[in-house]
Amino acid sequence: MCKKRNFIAIISLLAVVIIGSAATMPDEDHTYKNLKVLPKNISHDDLSGVMKSWSTALGVKCNFCHAPKVDNPEKLDFPNDAKPEKEMARSMYKMTMKINKKYFGHEDMEGEKAVLEVNCNTCHRGNANPEK
Ligand code: HEC
Ligand code: HEC
User: Considering only CA atoms, which residue is closest to atom 22 of ligand 1?
Assistant: First the structure.
């Protein structure tokens, strides 16, 4: 009886240690190959969040900006710059950051903490072509 309880205590302690160290592990294994506007040391979670928010703002899927792999067209070649939409997204990002810095006083993407800011959705609202 007592042994069993010890065993459970040890297992849960181990779980705390393992989960704890996984959470504080640096994201070094997620070095992206071709980041020109986003921070080069961006974490996997932050990059995924940015990509999802851009997709939602434009009402598109990942393949709107990312070209398929040559050897495996079922998959996307994320670092590849073949699609002009990807470069357009970079310049849109720079423009958006500039507006926020100049007129809203933000230095970076932490802007969502503030009440006022411009983001992709401010203009796009789920539409890749807001001018139409
Ligand atoms: C509106 C265009 C756009 C959409 C939609 C988009 N991306 Fe991206 N993605 C970019 C741009 C631009 C970069 C490069 C950012 C930079 O230069 O800092 C990038 C970079 C990446 C990278 C890093 C590649 C590397 O190693 O350099 C990954 C991974 C990625 N995107 C995944 C996704 C996924 C997954 C989706 C769908 C959920 C998605 N993207 C949707 C424009 C887009
Ligand atoms: C101030 C308004 C505004 C903001 C903010 C904005 N966009 Fe745009 N975006 C536009 C307009 C207008 C166009 C159409 C331009 C054209 O057709 O020449 C456009 C076009 C684009 C295109 C090209 C679409 C196509 O069909 O080829 C992409 C990609 C894009 N935006 C991505 C983004 C992303 C990503 C963000 C946020 C980082 C963003 N935009 C923020 C106004 C905006």
Answer: 78
Residue 35: CB atoms within 10 A of its CB come to 14
Which of 29, 48, 65, 76 for a ligand 1 pocket mutation test, highest count of atoms within 8 Å of Cβ?
65
- CB-defined site of ligand 1, < 6 Å: 32-38, 51-52, 54-55, 58, 60, 62, 64-66, 78-79, 85-86, 89-90
Q: How far apart are CA 67 and CA 63, in angstroms?
A: 6
33-68 residue pLDDT tens: 999 999 999 999 999 999 999 999 999 999 999 999
Per-residue pLDDT averaged across 61-90, rounded? 98
* Predicted model pTM: 0.84
Please check whether residue 34 is in contact with residue 40, taking contact to mean a CB–CB distance below 8 angstroms: no
Of the bound ligands, which one is closest to the alpha carbon of residue 96?
Answer: 2
**Cα 127 versus chain centre, distance:** 20
* Closest C-alpha among 58, 68, 109, 116 to residue 88: 58
